[in-house]
Design goal:
The complex is a heterodimer of chains A (285) and B (263). Chain A is an all-alpha fold and 285 residues long. Chain A has helices spanning 29-55, 66-76, 80-113, 115-128, 137-144, 148-172, 176-184, 189-227, 232-241, 245-284. In chain A, helix 3 (80-113) packs across helix 4 and helix 8 (189-227) runs antiparallel to helix 10. With 263 residues, chain B is an all-alpha fold. Helices cover 84% and strands 0% of the residues of chain B. Chain B is built from twelve helices and no strands. The chains are: A mainly alpha (285), B mainly alpha (263). Chain A: It comes from Pseudonocardia adelaidensis. Chain A: Residues 1-27 are annotated as: Disordered.
Chain lengths: 285, 263
């Protein structure tokens, strides 16, 4: 950085941004309220702009006004069809996650506990982890047809690799001092699993779960779109095919909200685990 | 392994390389021989899958399907990286604007990308451009949000130093802020790459006319099982190759960072 000492010619270039506060904003409580309201006010304003743009015909016909989308959603959400599709989607994601977590975590723990196993298989695992779950879609449809089973098995395939590697990293990261201490104190294997291994692994698993859940949702929606398995993805595809656009967008928004809620819930779980983890570390080292 | 260790020195070194190759080799060998006499319509012999692979995926389909698939993915992904880093750096410098847009950005990131495929077909139609735009749109969020976080997380002391040394805004951005944010930016780009690859496949499974995913799905629907398996094999190999290339690029790009951390 030879130019570091060259004097700057423009004088006022950085003056405004040295203070991150907006000019004219009231300090103290008023500012805090403003800052809290701002994101939602902006969101509403953006939706209003979209509304005006589509009402005035600036947007293509395929983008209906926001109010029409909201109205369509309002009508759609209380129906039994919607409840069935939402339930089917959540069930497919949930079952897939459950299978992926159980299989992935147990395999990861085994690999962490038996180093030979890891050495023997890590090339295969490193290969398989990079193959996205949708790649398996054709063969699963071929073997099992367009059934919900295909959807949750694909979701499980998307879940199993992150879980396996997270669990493995968790076990591999256990300090030898901790492991030896547990052994010296005569903890039995099941006690070591419950009091040493699982607590050490749980924050890693929590992170893996958050990553996997969004994978699983992406995969399940894709399967529903492509194979017409019951679910929100299938409904979106049907409304799109019949050019019923307000309903299509309403369902896309619902799927987005499912993603947001899933993220928020699992993010909160992860923070709790991590919080616990860091305090644990501070006590021990 | 214990026997190999007893040999010591060279034997141990050889074992370190060979032992991890045992299982991959065994899988291929078992697959080859177990499927050799297969008459199952679902599981053709591996030899036939590989022959189909060579005939299709190393033949005409390179130009008609493989390159269009990869081209769409790279075009969308490349655009997303440029736009995502640009917007992310901007929003990282304008915290209030980033705060104002936060719900929109978080929604964009959490929305499962595949749900937008019918929307993109409805609004933009089919063909290359809609697919590229969709891939770019869904991959821009992880890049942008990570860049915002990275730029915002630059050490305030470093910021003060660059200011008192009177670096220009441009110098601060390219010499200090973006390099400091690079580890997080790269993490976002890695997520984006995974999403781009999935979207490359999924956009070809719905209302498409060419591409690896398209050929593979049509092969399944028309019961050309060897072609389906060979397409899956190609997608698997590409998925691994893309990630390996990215890991190499990442190591080069962030070499200074891992050095700095070791010190």
């Amino acid at each position: 950085m030879t130019s570091a000492l060259t004097p700057r010619t423009g004088v006022s270039a950085t003056a405004p941004e040295s203070d991150p506060r907006p000019r004219g904003a009231a300090p103290g409580r008023g500012r805090r309220v403003l800052v809290a309201v701002l994101p939602w006010a902006t969101t509403v304003a953006l939706l209003a702009v979209a509304e005006i743009l589509s009402r005035t015909g600036a947007l293509p016909e395929e983008v209906p006004p926001v109010t029409e989308v909201i109205a369509a959603g309002w009508q759609l959400v209380p129906t039994a069809t919607f409840a069935a599709s939402l339930g089917a989607t959540l069930a497919q994601v949930g079952i897939g996650l459950l299978i992926g977590v159980v299989v992935g975590v147990s395999a990861g723990l085994a690999l962490g506990a038996v180093p030979v196993l890891y050495r023997l298989t890590h090339h295969v695992l490193d290969f398989l982890r990079f193959i996205p779950a949708v790649v398996y879609l054709p063969v699963l449809v071929l073997l099992m047809g367009a059934t919900p089973r295909t959807a949750f098995l694909l979701a499980a395939l998307g879940t199993v690799w992150p879980m396996l590697f997270q669990a493995y990293y968790g076990v591999a990261g256990i300090s030898t001092v901790l492991a030896d201490t547990a052994r010296v104190f005569g903890l039995r294997p099941h006690q070591r699993l419950a009091h040493v291994v699982l607590p050490a692994v749980s924050p890693f698993v929590a992170t893996g779960l958050r990553i996997s859940a969004s994978h699983a949702l992406v995969v399940v929606v894709a399967v529903q779109l492509i194979t017409a398995i019951p679910g929100l993805g299938r409904d979106i595809a049907r409304y799109a095919a019949n050019a019923v656009y307000p309903q299509m967008y309403a369902l896309v928004a619902v799927v987005g909200l499912v993603g947001v809620v899933l993220n928020a819930v699992l993010g909160a779980v992860e923070r709790r685990r991590l919080h616990w983890h860091s305090s644990y570390r501070e006590t021990w080292t | 392994m214990t026997a190999a260790e007893a040999v010591g020195g060279r034997g141990r070194a050889a074992a370190r390389v060979l032992v991890p190759l045992l299982v991959p080799a065994a899988i291929v060998v078992v697959w080859w021989f177990a499927s050799a006499a297969s008459t199952s319509p679902y599981f053709p012999p591996l030899s036939r899958i590989l022959a189909t692979f060579a005939e299709h995926w190393l033949g005409d389909r390179v130009v008609s399907d493989v390159l269009p698939s990869l081209g769409r993915m790279l075009a969308g992904f490349g655009a997303a990286v440029v736009v995502g880093v640009g917007l992310g750096a901007l929003l990282g410098r304008l915290p209030l604007l980033a705060h104002a847009l936060n719900p929109v950005l978080q929604f964009g990131r959490a929305l499962p990308a595949t749900a937008l495929v019918p929307v993109s077909i409805a609004v933009l139609g089919i063909g290359n451009v809609p697919k590229i735009l969709l891939i770019a749109f869904v991959t821009v969020f992880p890049v942008m949000l990570n860049t915002i976080d990275g730029v915002r997380g630059v050490d305030p002391v470093l910021e003060d130093v660059t200011r008192s040394y009177r670096l220009t805004r441009r110098q601060r951005l390219f010499r200090v802020q973006l390099p400091a944010a690079a580890p997080q930016v790269v993490a976002g780009v890695r997520v984006a790459l995974g999403v781009a690859f999935v979207m490359m496949i999924v956009t070809e499974l719905i209302a498409a006319t060419n591409g690896i995913g398209f050929v593979t799905l049509i092969a399944q629907q028309s019961f050309r099982v060897s072609l389906m398996w060979s397409g899956m094999l190609l997608l698997g190999i590409l998925g691994v190759a893309v990630n390996v290339l990215f890991a190499l690029a990442e190591r080069r790009l962030l070499r200074w960072y891992s050095h700095a951390r070791e010190d």
